[in-house]
Design a protein that fits this description.
The structure is a single chain. By secondary structure, the protein is α/β, with parallel strands linked by helices. It is built from 25 helices and 16 strands. It has a 7-stranded mixed β-sheet with strand order 10-11-7-6-5-12-13. Strands 1-2-4-3 form a 4-stranded antiparallel β-sheet. A 3-stranded mixed β-sheet has the order 15-14-16. The protein starts with a helix and ends in a 9-residue tail after the last helix.
Length: 638
């Protein structure tokens, strides 16, 4: 079935052009704000009045006549209303069965993007937990966003490679290595290793303030890790490997997986950064001041980075200051390459612009591939990873300046197409509500409305703890452990996806653990309710023409038909929240249909019974697709 909104818009555009309208006029087809006027409306006649020097109502009448002549399928009437709106009313009798039939098709090809939008590989990088601690709820938000965008792109037919960048040579890894060596802390009998390391990290950061010698040991340890000096480099790799294993297990609880793990240490050992640094020096895009606060550093100058706002200077030491337009330090005066520097090298590899490649092996049976610096470890063919045509990095908005620096480095090296194809999918952070902060030992006497999470201070909500607690709360609603786990995963994923990317999630335990209202559990109940109807009503043929529709039936049909438009919009804008909002609207429309149309198994008329069963089945199938895009496994029963 055609996209009727697009068909209406095209017919209006052709009719407007025939009247002499200028190119590029906004047709503006939207669901009608006045249901009595029609299902779809356009104010284009009002926009044309100034160009055509005629009254909008007269222009609208001519446009309506042309649209009627176009013969769009499933249209009952084209009318004019108000000060020049052109309205399209659907023919329920043919439109509703067509929507149901398409929703029940084995493969919904309506979701596929045009061929030009499916060309080339997109690399999506997400999660990026520093491998020195357990994942917290902020990391979960990142992973859920990245995983859902991946599912949307794949539904549109776009080839996607999912990468998880392991920053195993950063200062936080050095902190844990120092802590494990110098602190007299013991891992609890039932304490997971990643959680133990989180505790070590908090304690070593506290000790730095009182013991300057530890700060110097951190500096030496970081240099040793960076230079791949043994045995410290091997020790750091062993620690981070165990933590990455735990982080992957955490994400797997929510159905999140990866195609490739890329390790920062491999970028250094294989010479990716040396090659990138040499290329930037040859291109003369770096500065090397001999005096001033950046003496001895290699920097991407202020003019290249641009006016990008505050960055993460306090966390990574990558910039000359935290202010707007700060020069980006790529190599510090002690010779240590910053995170941004290694990220430039990583992106040259991602786009296939380096002659070098990783070696690859399987992380674990059935798991992702992982990079390796050792040729003997490679049991997977080279060349299959990277070489992306587009890169989408899911990183919170505080990393905007480093991402801009990477893009500008590519551009100044002459890789303009790749710079344009690098997208920073930014999102706001997860903060703590006052109640959540107090429960974690944060002083809230200053009366702020939210408090930043901090792994350094131990003020964060561990991902596993959240999933465990949600599971505990839904266990009474579930018939078995498997159902409880899926309900918990649905609750957590939906909670983290239903907010717009630009909204700070003020994490509150009661809100996050809620299982009624606008929640993932509500969506699962709607799907299970639809499945329950189908088990009680034997299959019947769908009538060729629908009976007169009630209001709830009509709204449900229209909502089912909107899925392709929602997926296309989520693809264009890289906005997973659009799918979450749609899933809730669909579940609500279905529940309204269920509550107001009577029990289907009691209907005697076979045509009405067949139509309503078909509509319930179409709602189930569409909701299952929407849940799948959100990474939620639909439940047939609860």
């Amino acid at each position: 079935m055609p996209d009727l909104a697009s068909e209406f818009a095209h017919a209006l555009a052709r009719a407007a052009a025939a009247l002499g309208a200028p190119d590029g006029v906004d047709i503006g087809v939207e669901p009608s704000g006045e249901p009595t006027a029609g299902d779809l409306s356009s104010p284009v006649a009002q926009r044309l009045a100034r160009h055509l020097r005629r009254p909008p109502i007269v222009i609208a009448a001519e446009l309506a006549e042309a649209v009627t002549a176009a013969g769009i399928p499933h249209v009952a009437l084209v009318t004019v209303s108000g000060p020049g709106y052109v309205n399209l009313r659907l023919d329920d009798a043919t439109y509703a069965p067509a929507v149901i039939a398409e929703a029940l098709a084995p493969a919904d090809e309506r979701l596929l993007a045009p061929a030009r939008e499916r060309a080339g590989k997109t690399i999506v990088e997400h999660t990026q937990v520093n491998p020195n601690k357990a994942a917290h709820v902020g990391h979960l938000r990142n992973a859920c966003i990245g995983d859902t965008i991946t599912r949307v792109l794949r539904a549109r037919g776009v080839p996607v490679e999912v990468q998880n960048y392991i920053d195993d040579t950063g200062v936080q890894v050095a902190d844990v290595v120092v802590g494990l060596r110098r602190l007299a802390l013991s891992q609890g009998r039932d304490e997971p290793f990643d959680q133990f390391c989180s505790r070590v990290y908090v304690e070593i950061c506290r000790r730095y303030e009182a013991e300057p010698a530890l700060v110097e040991e951190r500096r030496r340890t970081l240099q040793a890790i960076e230079a791949r000096e043994q045995p410290i480099a091997a020790e750091a790799r062993a620690v981070t490997t165990r933590i990455v294993e735990a982080n992957l297990a955490t994400m797997a609880r929510l159905g999140i997986d990866y195609d490739l793990l890329t390790w920062e240490s491999d970028i250094l050992e294989l010479g990716f950064w040396r090659a990138a640094f040499a290329e930037m020096r040859r291109a003369e895009i770096l500065e090397h001041p001999l005096v001033g606060p950046l003496a001895g550093c290699w920097v991407l100058p202020r003019s290249a980075v641009g006016e990008s706002g505050d960055d993460d200077a306090g966390e990574s030491g990558d910039s000359a200051s935290g202010g707007p337009g700060a020069a980006r330090v790529l190599v510090k005066s002690d010779g240590v390459a910053t995170y941004t520097a290694k990220d430039v090298a990583n992106h040259l590899w991602k786009f296939g612009l380096l002659e070098q490649d990783f070696h690859y092996r399987r992380w674990a049976p059935g798991g992702p591939a992982t990079s390796s610096a050792v040729a003997a470890d490679g049991d997977l063919p080279g060349g299959r990873f990277g070489h992306g045509d587009r890169v989408v990095n899911v990183i919170d908005q505080r990393q905007s300046a480093p991402q801009l620096a990477v893009r500008e480095a590519l551009r100044r090296l002459g890789h303009r197409a790749q710079a344009d194809a690098l997208h920073h999918l930014a999102y706001e952070v997860v903060a703590l509500s006052p109640a959540a902060a107090r429960s974690l030992g944060v002083d809230t006497d200053d009366g702020r409305s939210m408090y930043a999470m901090s792994g350094r201070r131990g003020a964060d909500v561990r991902a596993d703890a959240l999933i465990d607690e949600v599971g505990r709360r839904v266990r009474a609603k579930a018939g078995d452990e498997r159902t409880a786990n899926r309900l918990a995963a649905a609750a957590v994923r939906y909670y983290l996806l239903r907010f717009s990317l630009g909204a700070i999630i003020t994490f509150d335990f009661d809100e996050a653990l809620r299982t009624t209202g606008n929640t993932g559990v509500y969506l699962q109940y709607a799907h299970a309710r639809a499945c329950g109807i189908l088990t009680r009503v034997a299959p019947l043929s769908l009538p060729e023409r629908a009976p007169a529709l009630s209001g709830p039936e009509r709204e449900l049909v229209k909502c089912i038909d909107r899925l392709p438009q929602v997926v296309a919009a989520a693809h264009r804008s890289l906005a997973p929240g659009l799918v979450a909002t749609y899933a809730f609207q669909l579940a609500t429309a279905f529940n309204d249909f269920y509550e107001h149309t009577g029990r289907i198994y009691r209907i005697a008329d076979p045509e009405l019974r067949g139509f309503r069963r078909g509509l319930a089945d179409a709602a189930r199938a569409t909701l299952a697709r929407a849940l799948g895009l959100l990474g939620i496994v639909p439940l047939d029963r609860i």
